[in-house]
Amino acid sequence: MKNRENNLIIGASGLCGQLLFRQLKDARLLLRSSYKEYCKDQVILEDFKEIGKDNIAERIFVGIETLFYCYGTTLKKAGSKERFFEIENEIPFILFRQAKKFGVKKIVMISSVGANSKSRNYYLRTKGILENFVLAQSFESLIILRPSLLLGSRNEKRLMERISQFILSPFCGASFLKQYAPVQAKDVASTMAKLGIEKREGFHIVNYFH
């Protein structure tokens, strides 16, 4: 099994990131503030744009083989489209460009079902733009997970997600609709951990989780 100390999790304070860290306890974490659970290798950086500086990027990425990307937000939480775009596109562009420059070989990242850079939906369009950007960096291995609505215990209440769960669940029995079914965050995290260990080269998209 691959040495877990060669792993970096970005977004460990989120729903999937927390669950992933519990499976990869020796991973390095990139955070804005100290993590509530014990981690011997935390990099605290209040402004992720600082990663654009090579001396900071070197400290974060050198020695990392696999980057697990769970970082993201919602339009409501971001507060504006401008801030949402910054979190979902501008900052990740810096992160992935520097990760490539400093030797990261494999990316395992969470996107969204329906991600498409040409979508009329703003959320799905930004996800698609990011996918295209990361693909263009030519990492040795890129695995993109596209879950639908994530289920699990969150710190904040998300009314629209609960409504979506109620509406979507009855219609997801058909095989062609399964990728749109709400999915447990723990299953996504487990899939990420397994894929991080597996030797997979090239580009892969994952739509189903178990």
Summary keywords:
globular; 7 helices; 210 residues; 37% helix; seven-stranded parallel β-sheet; alpha/beta; two-stranded parallel ribbon
Report helical residue fraction: 25-40%
Judged by helices, strands and strand pairing, the structural class is alpha/beta
How big a fraction of the residues is strand? 15-25%
Radius of gyration: 16 Å
Shape: globular
Mean model confidence by pLDDT: 86
Largest sheet: 7 strands, parallel
Count of beta strands: 9
Secondary-structure element order, N to C? EHEEHEHHEHEEHEHE
**How far apart lie the N and C ends?**
21 Å
Unreliable spans are 163-168
Instruction: Please give the count of helices.
Output: 7
Strand order of the largest sheet: 3-2-1-4-5-6-9
Put the structure in a nutshell.
This protein has seven helices and nine strands, in the order E-H-E-E-H-E-H-H-E-H-E-E-H-E-H-E. With 210 residues, it is of the alpha/beta class.
Question: Can you offer a commentary on this structure?
Answer:
- With 210 residues, the protein is an alpha/beta fold.
- Helices cover 37% and strands 16% of the residues.
- The chain has 7 helices and 9 strands.
- The strands form 2 sheets. A 7-stranded parallel β-sheet has the order 3-2-1-4-5-6-9, sandwiched between helices.
- Helix 6 (159-168) links the parallel strand 7 and strand 8.
- The two termini are 21 Å apart.
Question: How are the secondary structure elements laid out?
Answer:
Blueprint: E1 7-10, H1 15-21, E2 28-31, E3 42-44, H2 54-61, E4 66-69, H3 75-78, H4 81-101, E5 106-110, H5 122-136, E6 141-145, E7 150-151, H6 159-168, E8 183-184, H7 185-197, E9 202-206
Parallel strand pairs: 1-2, 1-4, 2-3, 4-5, 5-6, 6-9, 7-8
